[in-house]
Amino acid sequence: MKKVVLDTNVIISALFWEGNSRKMYDLIRQGKLIMLLSDDMEKELIRVLGYEKFGLSPQEILPFIRSLRTHARHVETKSNISVVIADPTDNIFLECALDGGADFIISGDKHLLDIRVYRGIKIVRAGEFLLKEGSPHS
To answer: 98-133, pLDDT tens digit by residue?
Structure first.
């Protein structure tokens, strides 16, 4: 089964809106993909969900995190990668993918997408993944 890392924006899109990110998360919830999640990714997600534009209190963020945890495989990252210079926080997704043995990083982030492949891990948009790799009958 394919292992994927979803970046923060893909996770947030999956939680709040319809579209390709939601379709990716549905495949994960159906057990057709394995989602990898690290502590650093979780912290970043909590930080971003705390933005005023989402209007969520810390108490409202916790159920999202709990739900993610039930569908994700926790990865303890040991790598310290500094590939993305323009936005160093993006390196946490590379670290999780590398240490968790991911096949793909699903992202909408230009800095990550520009890399395309990192140590055999393909970096693609959700739509591209679904088109080439996703289950058409899900």
So the answer is: 999 999 999 999 999 999 999 999 999 999 999 998
Q: In this structure, is residue 138 part of a structural domain?
A: no
How many separate domains does the chain show? 1
Total residues found in the chain within this entry: 138
In a domain, 137, yes or no: no
* Structural domain for 96, as ranges: 3-132
Give dist(CA 50, CA 22) in Å, integer.
Answer: 20
Structure token pair of residue 27: 């495949």
The secondary structure of the chain, three-state, reads CCEEEECHHHHHHHHHCCCHHHHHHHHHHCCCCEEEEEHHHHHHHHHHHCCHHHCCCHHHHHHHHHHHHHHEEEECCCCCCCCCCCCHHHHHHHHHHHHHCCCEEECCCHHHHCCCEECCEEEECHHHHHHHCCCCCC
Beta bridge partners of 72: 35
48-71 burial, b at 16+ Cβ within 10 Å, e below that, comes to bbeeeeeebeeeebeebeeebeee
